[in-house]
Design a protein that fits this description.
three-stranded antiparallel sheet, 77 residues, globular, 19% helix
Length: 77
């Protein structure tokens, strides 16, 4: 949420559900970005220290909500 608050001019990058490279559109397969109304942006990833994770930001009723979900693949938790 801090990035969104401090750098609103970059919000369009976080909202992108597709990119065009060399004239070819590549759509996101991330259903939160394409089907969850109110999604501002999100990032999925994997880090050795934290395993698989997702960070998301959405708006509901004029308020911003953020969340983090992670899983340590080393322990399965």
């Amino acid at each position: 949420m801090e990035v969104d608050r401090l750098f609103p001019e970059y919000r369009r990058f976080f909202l992108a559900s597709a990119v065009t490279i060399d004239g070819k559109e590549i759509k996101s397969n991330n259903l939160l970005l394409t089907r969850f109304s109110g999604t501002i942006g999100m990032k999925t990833g994997f880090l050795c220290a934290s395993g698989r994770n997702i960070v998301g930001l959405a708006t509901r009723n004029g308020k911003r909500h953020g969340g983090y979900f992670g899983r340590d693949d080393r322990t399965g938790t």
